[in-house]
């Protein structure tokens, strides 16, 4: 039995959720803070003030830190999970209105998607120093690392493309045409496939990571595929269909939509256990 957790939000870049068992961290864009939830008791155990209009959020692989993108003041807040305290807030140099953040699997670097400036900013976590900026045309609105640590993928909303960044030298090694207005992007647990939700194209693109090419385009049984989640075994992809109040379930073996499930109004984020 597959268990599905759905976060229902109302705006394309309003808030995000990240998890580090047994806690979940939710950015509250309108109140400039992060809620910390004990997922075993479903209770809010802390509310952490951060910067202005927090959006993207990511937990370090060792679960010791939470990185929060403050989109209005172009900064990142670092929350220490041991006591839910902000230990550092630093500017994201060169990135106006940063959108999302991804942590490399070794925890050594942050990659920040700066949609307005068409760049990805690379930050070293040991001293919060910007070490590189990478030009990524097309408004990179979302970002995902490969589990093997070799690549960073960006969904370029107005470019209808996905950019592939090599972490070895922080260069764009491929630009892949996908569907209309890609937003959600996730990488399979074995790093072999990349899944992209094309929110205005009503499709999910499947990218072969080794060849940097689209191998399937899956129509969704509703409009507005927004954000994605992948099961731990890689067998299923879940896509929120924001305009249809549905959740799409995609079978990755055959690259077909297996089912759609009615959910609440304007489903936004999704995660799976």
Q: What tags apply to this protein structure?
A:
273 residues, mainly beta, Thrombin, subunit H, four-stranded antiparallel beta sheet, 26 strands, disordered N terminus
What's the helix and strand layout?
Layout: E1 4-8, E2 17-20, E3 23-28, E4 33-38, E5 43-49, E6 54-59, E7 65-70, E8 75-80, E9 85-91, E10 100-103, E11 109-114, E12 119-124, E13 129-135, E14 140-145, E15 151-156, E16 161-166, E17 171-177, E18 182-187, E19 193-198, E20 203-208, E21 213-219, E22 225-230, E23 236-241, E24 246-251, E25 256-262, E26 267-272
Antiparallel strand pairs: 1-26, 2-3, 3-4, 4-5, 6-7, 7-8, 8-9, 10-11, 11-12, 12-13, 14-15, 15-16, 16-17, 18-19, 19-20, 20-21, 22-23, 23-24, 24-25
User: Radius of gyration over alpha carbons?
Assistant: 17 Å
SS summary, helix count: 0
β-strand percent reads: over 45%
First-residue to last-residue Cα separation: 10 Å
Identify the CATH class of the domain at 188-273. Mainly Beta
Low-confidence stretches: 1-14
Instruction: Kindly report the spatial arrangement of strands forming the biggest sheet.
Output: 2-3-4-5
Supply the helix-strand structural class.
Answer: mainly beta
Overview of this protein structure:
0% of the residues lie in helices and 58% in strands. With 273 residues, it is mainly β. It has a domain of 86 residues: Thrombin, subunit H (Beta Barrel), CATH 2.40.10. The chain has a four-stranded antiparallel sheet with strand order 2-3-4-5, with no helix packed on it. Strands 6-7-8-9 form a four-stranded antiparallel sheet, with no helix packed on it. A hairpin with a 4-residue loop joins strand 15 and strand 16.
